[in-house]
TrEMBL record, chain A:
Native organism taxonomy: Bacteria, Pseudomonadati, Pseudomonadota, Alphaproteobacteria, Rhodobacterales
Organism superkingdom: Bacteria
Protein name: FAD-dependent oxidoreductase
GO MF term (any one): FAD binding
InterPro entries: FAD-bd (IPR002938), FAD/NAD-bd_sf (IPR036188), RIFMO-like (IPR050641)
Ranges for domain FAD-binding: 30-367
The protein's required cofactors: FAD
Keyword Transferase in record: no
Keywords attached to this entry: FAD, Flavoprotein
One Pfam family matching this protein: Rng_hyd_C
UniProtKB/TrEMBL annotation, chain B:
Organism this protein belongs to: Roseivivax halodurans JCM 10272
Matching InterPro entries: DUF2783
Identification of the protein by name: DNA topoisomerase IV subunit B
Length: 543, 65
């Protein structure tokens, strides 16, 4: 009755009996996270590092075998770096910059991601999801050793919930039988088919897009370059509407065939049929080993609201996108980045519960952006009408000859961090001449600081000053913002000034704990900072 | 920038003749593809989403009976 639904890549949290199972009354926990995928583990890590006791329940004993996500974006790596686990991801991951786009049997054009200077992390690394998750769990172990109050319980499956006014009751099943606990706050990170969502009778809204992909990870020694190759209408036999070839670590390559919704899954999954497709693509002489393969179907939709009383949803449980653009796990990590500090403040009594409603509104905005992008990609890759196909092919024909048409080519707009334009927590944008990319709501771009990086210095609420005076710290109603005093001269490359000053001579930024800009001014004004700090914590402005 | 719907070509007859001539010898399917490429080229030349939307609007409403 507690059978594994998938086989494990890494067994990282074996089942062990815990005291809660023998308690007479349900033991109450401040935060319970259900689901130990990348998003759940990240949520536990973020809260645990804040010193908040957090319990994570997963129905398996470790990380699943399926490779799934491979493209992890700069913002994800920056967030993981804040948690102390960016370095191993960068080390294991494959960095790529060159992409090639093909239409049938001809190359349409190639592009270079042209990395901007002065960032600690590249635009993307290709890293198999099991490694991404393992590095997060290893960081949890390290944090636990340093006293972070995180507990992971493997083979603990959530079977039923009862949502109360100020807590949630959870029925959990283990190999040794069921038990019950209570949670002040429950975070649902239990994946796309979220049992928790169903238990609460909640569903998805929005546009549904359905397609299936045959995905294979193959190991080969052949000399394919570290590039992203994407085919529209691939010329190889029965390879579907699109095809992607992408390099992973350890001589493994990811191949995706978009094979359509109405396929006979069992038939397509036969090794001989997978091999026939791969042989047609790679050439019969190429030797390879299939490491893993699967057929996935995708949907594009989100929950209407990510907060339901004391229950918060994050990651695939809250929203799903098609794979074009690598936005699933990347956006889930941004969910956690957004939720962590807000829940932390609420649990400490330093912000009203309504702050958590802005988790929902800000991340719904992010999910909508992702869904919009992935829907547009899907419409370009699989045109829904004859005229849509006509224009798509016109774009590809033109792109081969003229640069202007290349921005129209949409083989997936790769994940970029969301800017909370119009966000409820945004304060003043009072920096005339300030760069648009660092407007309120935007995530702070990294910049070099002679022997370090800007993002490494941003944590908690920060008053970032560039060539401006300010006190060392401002405390407003229990929340402290400390100053980070910089000067344009700290970065001789000029990146810091270009990204944060623009045409302004000086700047004062209020930066949130998730490194998004809350408000900005030319000079320090105590009243303005205090008001913005209250506002960013979801509090009314002082009367 | 707003869309020009007043006469703007010195040689309207010539431009029209070029357009028809460009389609000569094309099958219907090829003509459609040609038009699609042409629209994309011109859209880029217009260089402004709002103006292009005005053009879409004008094209749509003129076709209504
Ligand atoms: C083929 C493929 C390629 C992809 N490529 C990318 C990519 O390149 N980049 C990217 O960012 N994203 C990509 N994605 C998306 C990415 O894999 C998902 O977005 C990500 O796994 C979501 O993480 P999650 O933690 O929300 O959910 P999941 O990873 O699904 O984790 C959910 C967890 O909850 C557990 N669980 C479920 N029910 C219960 C229960 N009742 N009790 C306890 N535990 C439970 C599950 O066992 C699981 O461990 C891809 C997905 C696929 C399928």
């Amino acid at each position: 009755m507690l059978d594994d639904r998938y086989s494990l890549a890494f067994r990282l949290y074996p089942y062990g009996r815990c005291a809660d199972q023998d308690a007479i009354d349900p033991v109450r926990h401040p935060v319970v996270v259900v689901g130990g995928g990348p998003v759940g583990i990240a949520a536990a890590l973020d809260l645990g590092l804040q010193g908040i006791p957090v319990l994570l329940l997963d129905d398996h004993e470790g990380v699943g075998q399926g490779s799934r996500a491979i493209c992890f974006a700069k913002r994800t790596l920056e967030i993981c770096d804040r948690w102390g686990t960016g370095a191993p991801m960068l080390e294991k991951g494959v960095v790529w910059n060159l992409g090639k786009v093909f239409h049938a049997d001809r190359k349409v054009f190639e592009f270079n991601l042209l990395p901007e200077e002065g960032h600690k992390f590249p635009a993307f690394v290709n890293l198999p999801q099991p490694y991404f998750e393992r590095f997060l769990v290893e960081r949890v172990r390290e944090a636990q050793a340093q006293g972070a109050p995180i507990e992971i319980r493997g083979k603990n499956r959530l079977d039923a919930v009862e949502a109360r006014e100020d807590h949630v009751l959870l029925d959990v099943t283990t190999p040794e039988g069921p038990y019950r606990i209570a949670a002040d706050w429950l975070i649902g990170c239990d994946g796309a088919s979220s049992p928790l969502r169903r238990m609460l009778g909640l569903d998805f809204e929005g546009r549904v897009f359905q397609d299936s992909f045959l995905i294979a990870d193959i190991r080969m020694k052949a000399e394919f370059p570290t590039e992203r190759w994407f085919w529209f209408e691939p010329p190889f036999k029965s390879s579907g509407a699109s095809c992607l070839l992408h390099k992973q670590p350890d001589d493994v390559w990811r191949v995706d065939f978009q094979i359509g919704w109405d396929v006979d899954r069992a038939e397509e999954m036969k090794e001989e049929n997978i091999r026939a497709r791969l042989d047609a693509m790679l050439g019969a002489e190429v030797d390879y080993e299939i490491v893993w393969s699967s057929i996935y179907t995708f949907q594009c939709r989100r929950m209407k609201n990510f907060r339901h009383g004391r229950v918060l949803f994050a990651g695939d449980a809250a929203h799903q996108v098609s794979p074009f653009g690598a936005r699933g796990a990347n956006s889930g990590i941004q969910d956690v980045d957004n939720l962590g500090w807000k829940l932390g403040l609420v649990l400490r009594g330093k912000a009203p519960e309504t702050l958590l409603d802005t988790y929902s509104s800000e991340r719904c905005h992010g999910a909508d952006e992702n869904i919009l992008n992935s829907t547009r990609s899907t419409d370009f890759i699989t045109p829904k009408s004859a005229v849509s196909r006509l224009f798509r092919n016109a774009v590809l024909d033109l792109a081969e000859h003229h640069a202007f048409a290349r921005p129209f080519v949409n083989s997936g707009r790769l994940s970029l961090p969301c800017i909370y334009d119009g966000g409820l927590l945004n304060g003043a944008d009072a920096l005339p001449g300030g760069p648009s990319r660092t407007r309120p709501g935007a995530p702070c771009p990294d910049a070099p600081l002679g022997g370090g990086q800007l993002l490494e210095r941003l944590g908690g609420f920060v008053i970032l000053t560039l060539d401006a005076d300010a006190p060392e710290a401002v405390e407003e109603d229990g929340v402290t913002a400390r100053r980070l005093a910089l000067s344009a001269a700290d970065d001789p490359s000029g990146a810091l000034a270009a990204r944060y000053l623009g045409d302004a001579r000086s700047a004062v930024y209020l930066v949130r704990p998730d490194q998004h800009v809350a408000a900005r001014w030319e000079t320090f004004d105590e009243g303005a900072i205090r008001a913005a700090l209250r506002h960013a914590c979801g509090k009314e402005r002082p009367a | 920038m707003s869309l020009t719907l007043d006469p703007n070509l010195a040689d309207a007859d010539g431009v029209y003749a070029d357009l028809i001539e460009a389609h000569e010898g094309l099958t219907e399917e090829e003509s459609h593809a040609f038009n699609a490429r042409l629209i994309l080229i011109l859209a880029n030349h217009v260089g402004d989403r709002e103006t292009f939307r005005q053009a879409l609007e004008a094209a749509g409403s003129a076709g209504k009976r």
